[in-house]
Amino acid sequence: MSDLDVTHPWHQHHTSTSPLLAAATGHRPSPDIPGATHRPVWFMRQAGRSLPEYREVRQGTDMLDACLNPELTAEITCQPVRRHHVDAGIFFSDIVVPMKLAGIDVEIVPGTGPVVAHPIRTEADIAALEATSADDFEAALDPIREAVRLTTAELTTTPLIGFCGAPFTVASYLVEGGPSREYLHTKALMFSRPALWHRLAAWVADRSGRFLRAQVLAGASAVQLFDSWAGGLSLEDYTTYVQQHSAEVFDHVTDLPVPRIHFGVNTAELLVAMRAAGATVMGVDHRLPLDEANARLGGTTPLQGNIDPAMLFATPQARETAVRRVLDRGTAAPGHIVNLGHGVPQHTDPGVLTDLVAMVHDLTRVGAR
Ligand code: CP3
Fold first, then answer.
1. What amino acid positions are annotated as catalytic residues?
2. Global pTM?
3. Which CATH number does 42-304 carry?
C-alpha cells in the first residue's frame, strides 16, 4: 500500500484517528479506540443552497466556475463544518466537473442539473472522448488540487471526503444530455451496443478516477463514489454493464489507505454487488433499514446513513424518534457513520441540521450508549 505524503492531514493532523475514520474502519465508539469518541455525522449536500452564507458567496458566479475557483471552493466546503460541527467536510464540486475538465461542453442549470450540449451517443462521439489527452486532463486538475489544499489547511483535524460520480450515473448525463427518469438512451446504448457502452463507461471511469485520486493525494482522507442513479438498473444489468467500471474508479485509490464509501439511491437489491466493486463502507438510502442492510452484507461492512431527508421538515419530536431509530438500527453494523438517506433538500432550515448534529453527538458519546 502506498503511503500518503507526510504533510497530508492523515499524518499531519491525525485525521486517521478521527471519529469518521474510526467508524469507517469498523469501530464503534469506545474508550479503547483512538478517535472513536462518538458516532460521526455529516450530510450529503451539506454545502450548498440550504446555507445563506453559500447563497451569498455564490451570487453572480456560475456553479461550474465556482467549482474551478480554489478559494471559493474551499470557502464553500468549510461553511457547513464551521456552522454545524459535522465530523467531515465533503469537497464542494460536482460529478460532472471532471467531464468539463476533459473538454465536454456541460453546464449546471439551476433547478435542473447538469446539461450536456451535445449528447454522447455514437461511436464517433466516444472515439473523440478517447482521443482526448490524459496528460492535459491531469494538468487541468490543478485547481482541484489547490482547492483541496486550501480546504484541508482550514479543516485540520476534520477529515475531508473526496468524491466523484460512478460511471453509470455520470454517463447517464452524457448520453441523455441532462437529467432523466428512465435512462432510455443510456440503457438503449448498453443493450444494443454493449462494446460501445463499455468503452464510454471505461473512459468516464478513467477521468473520474483521476479526479478522485487527485483529491486524495492533495489532502482528502476518505472517498465517496456516488452511483446515485444505479437504482434504475436490475441486479443482472448492474453486474453485466456497470459494476466493473465502478471498480475501475475505485482502482485509482485502492493503493491508498483511505476508506472507500459507495452510495446509491434505491439500491437495496444492489448493495452486495456495489460493495463488490471495491467499497469498504456502504452508504444506504432511507428506504432500507440499516439492520437489514447489515444483514444483507453479512455483518462485516461499516454503514453510512440513513435518516429520511423529509424528517428535516417534520416536528422535532418526530425527528428525534427517527434519529433514535436510525441510531438503534445502525448499532448492528460494525461501524456507523450517521448521514441522511440522500442529500439535504434546498429549503432545509440550517438550524435543524445544527441541532441534529448535536443530538447525534450527545446520544452516541462514549458512555452514553
Ligand atoms: O455538499 C455536498 O454534497 C458537496 C457537493 C456536491 C454537489 N454535487 C454540489 C452541487 C456533490 C457531492 C454533488 C454530487 C452530485 N451532483 C450528484 C450525486 C449526489 C446526489 O445528489 O445523488 C449528482 C447526481 C449530481 C448532479 C447534479 N448537480 C444535480 C442533480 C444538481 C442539482 C440541480 C438543481 O439545481 O437542483 C447539481 C447541481 C449542484 N451540485 C448544486 C450543488 C451545491 C446546486 C447548484 C447551485 O447552487 O446552483
1. 45, 49, 58, 94, 173
2. 0.97
3. 3.20.20.210
